[in-house]
Specification:
Shape: globular
Strand content: 5-15%
Radius of gyration: 24 Å
CATH class of the domain at 108-359: Alpha Beta
CATH superfamily of the domain at 108-359: Type I PLP-dependent aspartate aminotransferase-like (Major domain)
Order of helices and strands: HHHHHEHHEHEHEHEEHEHHHEEHEEH
Helix content: 40-55%
Number of helices: 16
Number of strands: 11
Largest sheet: 7 strands, mixed
Structural class: alpha/beta
Length: 479
């Protein structure tokens, strides 16, 4: 019962409704394929069903759950559906959900070691595990000069890396005197938009972002990068940061990070490797080639919340020199000072990120790794890549469709031979149907359909059905 004096939910009701909530989620997953993958509501439709003002008196938990079913559910695009092939995966799993529940229950604020030692030390340990699991250089382990931290996203990781590069190249004076307008940043034309946003936030400005051409595989051209850096130096600019991408969002292109890394090492430029989605594949030894050259990286990141069955948000960010990161981001007001932080024996992760506060994210990651084990994770990664290759084989055999880009892992970019307008109509019709959900990109100035195969419960029957729907819809449009 609700306590009339405190307005809190009591322990007995928490047990009751907590069990109800787990059943609700379990029922959702059991029936998820019955829902249209992409929400069909119109703009403002959800808001119109909500009351104009907050309730003066508390409502029953039953009425809240009823509104979830009646109002919220129609506005959900089902990212966890096995028929969700859009954007990138944001897959979760039951162990991750339970780990997140426990984290929410603890309600830990992990800004300092002092504020919850387990929050900090588990994070250090799990990130060290992942160094070994992905075959990353030992320099990224906590016992060495570098270390890892969980950020909310690869966008935040890129910003932290860029700020560190900016400070290092200016001998840490930019934080004091303001940004140097001669600093330059480099990325390929296919690099995620988060780099442009980071450049703006860091005060470097988009005019100082150099976009480097790509080759026929949509990977950065190292020689073009080297020429641009050399020209900028000759023109009085200060090259500070290069982002190499392992698995671009648009097409899953993989930049040659070893060649890029050697250029960065020679020119004294910070190299950050963004492996947000594709990085998980390196758990499998046969896909570890995607990180060839990672030893040259000053920082790198990948997102377990994309392809490692760990719910959003969870980005693993590594730096080779943690002192550079800490010196860039550390501020110590009096109210955070404590004896433990003054020692050299602990990490205060508040100094490794933009915000002060931080959640107990490592708990869900720990749950996932322990529940699946390394072999279980390998099994699912290999299965998704195998399914993508099967889909590629169908596209190659089709007289109606063609591949638009190489498909090294789990993303297939393809298009109908009838041209851009037809492909636009085809994708719109497919998504309106509700049986699957895909998104598009533009490759070589041509409208291209993307199919990302990596949801937790996607099986061969789902991609086979998707291919049948794609072909059937294309034939209907073509008549």
């Amino acid at each position: 019962m609700k306590n009339d004096n405190t307005f809190h939910m009591d322990i007995d009701d928490f047990r009751k409704y907590g069990k109800l909530m787990v059943d609700f989620i379990a029922d959702y997953y059991e029936n998820i394929e019955t829902f249209p993958v992409k929400s069909k509501v119109k703009p403002g439709e959800i808001k119109e069903k909500l009351p104009d003002h907050a309730p003066s008196n508390g409502e029953s938990f039953e009425s809240i759950i009823n509104d979830v079913t009646d109002i919220i559910m129609p506005g959900i695009t089902h990212w966890q559906s096995p028929n969700f092939f859009a954007y990138f995966p944001s897959n979760t799993s039951f162990p991750s959900i339970l780990g997140e529940l426990l984290s929410a229950g603890f309600g830990v604020q992990g800004m300092l070691w002092e504020t919850s030692p387990a929050c900090t030390e588990l994070e250090i340990h799990v990130l060290d595990w992942l160094v070994d699991m992905l075959g990353l250089p030992a320099k990224f382990r906590s016992g060495n000069a570098g270390g890892g931290v969980i950020q909310d996203s690869a966008s935040s990781a890129a910003l932290c890396a860029l700020l560190s590069a900016r400070e290092k190249i200016t001998d840490y004076n930019t934080n004091i005197s303001g940004c140097n307008s001669r600093i330059t940043v480099y990325a390929s034309t296919q690099t995620h938009s988060s780099i442009e946003k980071a450049v703006k936030i860091a005060g470097i400005g988009s005019k100082n972002l150099r976009l480097i051409d790509v080759d026929e595989t949509l990977s950065m051209r190292p020689k073009a990068l080297a020429r641009k850096i050399r020209k900028d130096k000759d023109d009085g600019f200060i090259p500070a940061f290069v982002c190499a991408t392992v698995g671009t969002t648009s097409s899953n292109a993989i930049d040659p990070i070893e060649e890029i890394g050697k250029i960065c090492r020679h020119e004294n430029v910070w190299m950050h490797v963004d492996a947000a989605m594709a990085g998980t594949a390196a758990i499998c030894h046969e896909y570890r080639y995607i990180l060839d050259g990672i030893e040259y990286a000053d920082s790198c990141c990948f997102n377990p919340h994309k392809w490692m069955f760990t719910n959003f948000d969870c980005d693993c960010f590594y730096v080779a020199d943690k002192k550079a990161l800490i010196k860039t981001l550390s501020i110590l007001p009096e109210y955070l000072k404590n004896k433990t932080s003054e020692s050299d024996n602990i990490i205060d992760y508040r100094d490794w990120q933009i915000p002060l506060g931080r959640r107990f994210r490592s708990l869900k990651l720990w749950f996932v790794i322990r529940y699946y084990g390394v072999e279980g994770l390998k099994y699912h990664i290999r299965k998704h890549v195998k399914l993508a290759k099967k889909f590629v084989s169908w596209v190659k055999k089709s007289p109606m469709f063609q591949l638009a880009a190489p498909a090294p892992l789990n993303l297939v970019c393809f298009r109908h031979i009838n041209g851009d307008d037809f492909n636009r109509k085809l994708l719109a019709r497919l998504n309106e149907n509700g049986q699957l959900y895909m998104t598009h990109t533009v490759i070589d100035n041509l409208y291209t359909i993307r199919m990302c195969i990596s949801q937790t419960n996607t099986e061969e029957r789902h991609i086979k059905r998707a291919w049948e729907i794609i072909n059937k819809t294309a034939r209907e449009l073509d008549n």
